[in-house]
Automatic annotation (TrEMBL):
InterPro entries: Aminotrans_V_dom (IPR000192), GDC-P_C (IPR049316), GDC_P (IPR020581), PyrdxlP-dep_Trfase (IPR015424), PyrdxlP-dep_Trfase_major (IPR015421), PyrdxlP-dep_Trfase_small (IPR015422). Residues 371-470 form the Glycine dehydrogenase C-terminal domain. Keywords: Oxidoreductase, Pyridoxal phosphate. This is glycine dehydrogenase (aminomethyl-transferring). Residues 1-23 are annotated as: Disordered.
Length: 515
């Protein structure tokens, strides 16, 4: 037996492989309350006599009921918990539409510099000139990459950015006396947050169907346009992993009708440095810094979704924003004229700004373009390897940064997309995105990103093909019971979502009566 470059056994022999993340070797981890008890402490502390408390009558009346653990017990508990997590540092994330790319450690080092990490949003502006300069430079490059006139850095996430962009559109139309425009066009292949954002702002949503090739037809857009239409919200590249070939014609039709073009920029990482959305005719677009510029993604934040605006919408940009003056950089905190005002507290996520600008500067314009091209190359490689077995809904054109498959290759196998994804966990890979986009039945959306090597992609494709062959061969039970190697087995996800157990309660110890 020999070892390959990944340290995995090769050759012949009865070798039982375990998942790549080693999850099968880890036992279930009990809660701290189950490890320790409330009768003992992990450390020895002297008794303290408190003569007068400062709690104003709000002193605790019941025992604290915290488990006492030693330092090694507490440390081992949290280390074991961390090993149960699947992370981008432990394996590939093939999640389509989420872009779980590598977070370079240089970014983290820069974000931890005291001048960025230890500042406070209420400090005097004179003491944070370096931070303002970074924000100003980040804004400059975001506008340069998109060929737009203004940018709002403060939105905390992509959906928050969508809200801002549509608020700017609404303000612009109100300012020119067109508040009657209450309809927003949203293609069926859009992200689900698009119609939700429009509805939240009081718009009615009109769906635009996708063509057979997964893209939006400009003719369908023209037919849907009317004096009541305020905007179109179009994702490009779209959620089928395809570039919209008629995007310029769509923008022209929308503008001719007096409406605005909101572009969902969640997939900008596929075209950054290659295509400038402003050249395509967009009026507003959010940019997910985590997806495009490698800032951390997941765990509920911290998110950052800056919004770039065209010249028509620039006057409606919110505060705060950085402004250069003769005495240095200032932070404009109060809106004037028709600007939206403030949409969030303070200036947004400073740590994400640092990481994003670090990524930009370390790559340069040519490096960003190469990253986008590599993301597209990797996705097309995955598509080319898998389409010999997997069914491809749009086979006649190359994909962009993500490869889309449907579940028709599983027909008559008794295996669903969900079953297939669960089995992938047993092979050590995080599942791809399932059942999205909705325009494809049983969708499996794979986005390898530019971070992954050919060797990693081959390992993933080998496992996918192995599972597909297993399903087609009729080994249905291998899928219905998966995962079996994970710390937690197959669960009733519907019941878990509808009846979650949110509070742990100590089991009562009932003593048995003597015989």
């Amino acid at each position: 037996m020999s070892m390959n470059t990944q340290g995995r056994p090769t050759g012949t022999g009865n070798v039982t492989s375990s998942p790549a993340n080693g999850a099968a070797l880890l036992p279930n981890e009990p809660l701290l309350f189950e490890i320790g008890d409330t009768e003992h402490s992990g450390v020895d502390l002297p008794d303290v006599s408190i003569k007068r408390d400062r709690l104003g009558g709000f002193s605790r009346t019941l025992p604290l009921d915290l488990a006492g653990l030693t330092e090694p017990e507490a440390m081992r508990h949290y280390v074991r918990l961390s090993r149960l997590n699947y992370s981008i540092d432990s394996g590939m994330y093939p999640l389509g539409s989420c872009t779980m790319k590598h977070n370079p450690r240089l970014n983290e080092k820069m974000a931890r510099l005291p001048g960025f990490a230890d500042i406070h949003p209420l400090q005097p502006v004179s003491t944070v000139q370096g931070a303002l300069a970074l924000m100003d430079q980040l804004a400059h490059w975001l506008m340069t990459l998109t060929n737009t006139a203004a940018v709002a850095l403060s939105p905390k996430a992509g959906a928050h950015g969508e809200l801002l962009g549509m608020m700017a559109i609404k303000a612009a139309q109100t300012a020119r006396g067109e508040g009657h425009r209450k309809v927003v066009l949203v293609p069926e292949s859009a992200h689900g947050t698009n119609p939700a954002t429009a509805a939240f702002l009081g718009y009615s949503v009109k769906a635009i169907p996708a063509r057979a090739d997964g893209t939006v037809d400009v003719t369908a857009v023209r037919e849907a346009l009317s004096p009541d239409v305020a905007a179109i919200m179009l994702t490009n590249p779209n959620t089928c992993g395809l570039f919209e070939p008629q995007v310029i014609e769509i923008a022209e039709a929308v503008h001719d009708a007096g409406a605005f073009f909101y572009c969902d920029g969640a997939n900008f990482n596929a075209i950054m440095g290659v295509v400038r959305p402003g050249d395509l005719g967009i009026d507003a677009m959010h940019i997910n810094l985590h997806k495009t510029f490698s800032t951390p993604h997941g765990g509920g934040g911290p998110g950052a979704g800056p919004v770039v605006l065209s010249a028509a919408l620039a006057p409606f940009a919110p505060v705060p924003f950085v402004q250069r003056t003769e005495s240095g950089l200032e932070l404009v905190e109060h809106s004037e004229g028709e600007a939206l005002g403030r949409i969030t507290a303070f200036q947004g996520q400073m740590g994400m700004y640092v990481r994003a600008l670090t990524y930009m500067l370390s790559h340069g314009s040519d490096g960003l373009a190469q990253a986008a091209k590599d993301a597209v190359l990797n996705a097309n490689y995955v598509k080319a390897r898998l389409q010999t077995v997997f069914s491809v809904p749009f086979p006649d054109q190359p994909c962009m940064h993500e490869a889309l498959f449907d579940d028709s290759f599983l027909n008559q196998t008794g295996v669903s997309t969900l079953d297939f994804a669960k089995a992938l966990i047993d092979k050590g890979f995080h599942p791809m995105t399932m059942y999205f986009p909705l325009v494809v039945h049983g969708a499996m959306l794979v986005e390898p990103t530019e971070s992954e090597s050919k060797q990693t992609l081959d390992q993933f494709c080998d496992v996918m093909l192995e599972l597909a062959s297993d399903a087609i061969a009729g080994n249905m039970q291998n899928f219905l019971s998966a995962p079996v190697n994970a710390p937690r087995r197959r669960m009733d996800e519907t019941r878990a979502a509808r009846s979650p157990i949110l509070k742990w309660e100590r089991e009562e110890v009932v003593s048995e009566a003597a015989q």
